[in-house]
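anyone else get weird line breaks when pasting these?? whatever heres mine. first is seq + tokens for prot A
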Amino acid sequence: MNFIEFKELLSKKLDLKLDSYKLNRVERRVYSLMRRHQIDTLEECYERIKKDPDFKEVFLKHFTINTSEFFRNPTSFKFLDKVVLPSLFSRKKKVHIWSAACSNGAEPYSVAILINEMEIPKHRYKILATDIDRYILQMADLGIYSNQALLRVEPEVKEKYFHQIDEDRFQLDDKIKKQVNFGYQDLLKEEFDSGWDLIICRNFFIYLTKEGKDNLTRRFTEALNPEGVLFLGNTEFIFEPELFNLKKMNGSFYQKLS
């Protein structure tokens, strides 16, 4: 069995749209897991996925990379805080925010903290956070984070919104936890709602082929309200954004034209 055949079988078995992911990244993830579990061939790996539910779950967790932290790329979050959010709340009675591929919840919770610091009433916004990894969604809902995830949190913000559990773990305040709703979402396969004013999808595009990125960008734009904003990772750029009815605002921020 060659890797293309393996990938096609895997796509059907796991119900994942792997053609939208860069082939070299898929290969690296698969072979690193095989080495870890001392699996010699792709055939053996596929059989384990088919017959062993626990290994199947391990494979899915390994394939979906879940690394995030609060206020990752501080300059971007400063622009979000000082420009994007004030503009949205000045124009809208209620602001609808979607954190797509939210991983461990650090990013949507970061946005909730910023909005709380702005003293915006809860009835004026909605935050939805989605991911394909059901396990990481459970962890995000718990709101427990390590020191590493909080390195970029200002001391006064950390003291205000986090309660220390032990030497390395902190519990996010219930007030912030209640402001984010989590749900399962496969961005590459499922339809998603429209009417969003801010869509945050950071560090997911880097794993996709050009066709996958273009398709997702188009769908995100369609889901945005006029003048809505798409917030990507700091190394993710949309070339010729006007082709997607977008204009570049600053860094990795793009605004829908109409």
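and prot B, same format (seq, then tokens)
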Amino acid sequence: MSQLEREITQPSALLDEQGGLIQVGWARHPLLDCNLEQIRFYPVRFLQRFRVKRWDYYGVTSPHCYFSVTLADLGYAGQVFAYAVDFINGSYHEETVTIPFGKGIALPRNSDGGDSRYAGRNVRASFRVDGEVRRVEVKWDDFGGRPLNADLRFRLPADHESTVVVIPIGERRFYYNRKINCLPAEGTLEIGDRTTVFEPATSLGSLDWGRGVWEYNSFWVWASASGFLSDGRRAGLNMGFGFGDTSAATENTLLLEGRIHKLPRVRFDYDARDFMQSWRMRADRVDLTFIPFLERLAKTNLLLVRSEVHQLFGRYHGTVLSDEDERVEFNGLVGWAEEHHARW
């Protein structure tokens, strides 16, 4: 681990009375109370909600498919979107509902409790935390001409570590994020007359929980994976770069059997003209090649809010060195890497 990175080990509020970050760095657990009511971005208080971004993104990976659903409040607008990726035939389908000013989307204050929900005419989604179990339920009446019903449960033991970062973006902006990999998953996904069953022995879930105030023009790269090594151990990867001041913390981690191993700054090499070419991720303890097999392209243009995401699904090959100097081998672990440009 880089000696310059700071690990947060004591609880506190996220923001002080002036809207400044009390602590900056990374943590293994969500120790900070996300008191967004202390934001002091604009002198006129009611305008601040339009700059705050909040989202809960759940995903589940099985040997044959990936399914994800998100509830997001971007200030100007809210979004509910879900997508299902079929690894066997190399296809995916995605649906999005956009809600002016995020009306009807409820998101919790912190990532370790509370419910997220939205109920509209054709879409209903809820994320509930009940002790060590997180339940994700989605009903989408018209998902590409077929009804979608998902009922998923992710298990998060109290000692399961996650990647938590608090990153400043300029003087008043910031990013508070928790990413959890390798959650044992079970449940069903029904799309039309096709049912996929997820079982903990083969399926793992993930959560991307984000809160913050970004620059209007933002860019980031995110790479992630949750799966099983050849010896049966659960292993996850989380790496990225882009926005903000990451001198005190990056989000680069290896998760091995529920324990975080902090990784140094990682260099990404990829071709933005052809994302389907192999990606390289390298650092003192990281030597990985990511080979895509499918590209998901998602574009949003709502005038004030625009985004373009190139998300590549593929397989990770190479090695990562743990904190105990174990050389962890990745031989085709399925995951993704994405480049995201946003104006929001």
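btw re prot B: The mean pLDDT is 95. The radius of gyration is 19 Å.
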